[in-house]
Write a structure and sequence with these properties.
heterodimer, A: 250 residues, B: mainly alpha, Rna Polymerase Sigma Factor, Chain: A, Arc Repressor Mutant, subunit A, 74% helix
Chain lengths: 250, 206
Amino acid sequence: MNCREYRELIAAHVDGALSFEESREAQSHIEQCATCCRIFVWETRAQKVIKPRLAIIAPPSGAKERLLDTLEQKGRSREMLRWFSLSPRLAGSFALAMVVVLATILWRNNSQDDLLSVAVDQYRTVLAKGIGSDQKEGQSTPATRLLDLSPWGYRLSANQVKQVDGREERLSLFEGQANDYILAKEIDGVVLPLSSEAMITRAEDRQFVIYSRNGVNLVAWVDNDLLCVLTSKLPNEKLLALAKRIAVRS
Amino acid sequence: MEGTTHLIAQSNLFTFLLKGKKALKQDFEQVAIPHLSYIYTAAFYLTQDEHEAEDLVQETYLRAYRFFHKFESGTNCRAWLLSIQRHLFINRYRHRKKQPEFVDWEKVDREYESFVLDEEHTEKYNPERLFCFRDMDPEVEKALKGLPEEFRTVIILVDIQELNYQEAAKVMKCPVGTVRSRLSRGRRLLQVALRNYALQRGLINK
């Protein structure tokens, strides 16, 4: 180590911030160089005097309060801005996704409100005007695949198959012994309708939607992508019990 | 009905997040605010103006608050705050410097050795006497402010803020060797400035 090199690290030598090896070299140098040794001694004494005079300066009066106020105000708005500043694209995509999800939820709720109320209206219409023209004379097979209510004492009265919005809709009207009618409907590829006016109950490892309007009751459930709907003036409990029996059989 | 349930769940999540933010704010106040005087001192010496120093401190703390989730608990918070401050200082204030600061090191070393190595001088004016004159404190402040920024910064970080050399190197984004060298030269410059003050005041003879 030469004098030039030593003078570049003299501060670290004075502060004891050299590695063991470096410290050994530095010590060896000042033992051989009187000038550097004098400077080392001077620097050690000078540092003990000057350093305490490099005092911490207190902030101006009220600075802490002003800082806390600023953190309170700007910190809140910056938190929101941070999302957008960190990744505007991500934030924008997220916002768009949220709008889509919300719109989908609202649309879904609205359209499935329609599905349930349509089923109820359909029941009234079918009872008032008849089901349609698909039934052939002597035909005893319901149009519906699963919803055959004959095992439970219901007779097939009429049935119809039609296309609604690109999906096959199968209707079968069953008549009970007490002149009670049940309209059984199956629609392919429709999810379980949800509505703020409907109840949901769980049984036989699936969900059943229970809906009522103007004295007409409805129970719906999904079986392998097939939406099954029973609509009748029978009480909800009887319809639900029947629906559960059908679900178990399937 | 399920759609409504989803919306309720989302609002509960936001409520939870708000509670989390409050705890974060309290944590920040406990961990970072106690270093305010140190951060202000560094800002004061960097900007050399009381008002700009306070602005720099506010910006430093705002940025620290924004990125507090990145601060590793248990590490040196003051070093972290000083690192943020230096970054802000370089970006916002440093461009105001009109010309590069040039130091005539030959002249500085000559003056330095004249009072450190002169036996007759040092017998009369040893460090304890040379740097302990009455009313010296404002002159120490003035001398530090007068140093070129790179030397001023390293003295602020190591001698005032008491960071170790590795921490100072991290704040300054330079090798430890550079910290050592700048500190050695910075202290030398400071002593020359203080000694010149003592000469001007007639407190010592040349």
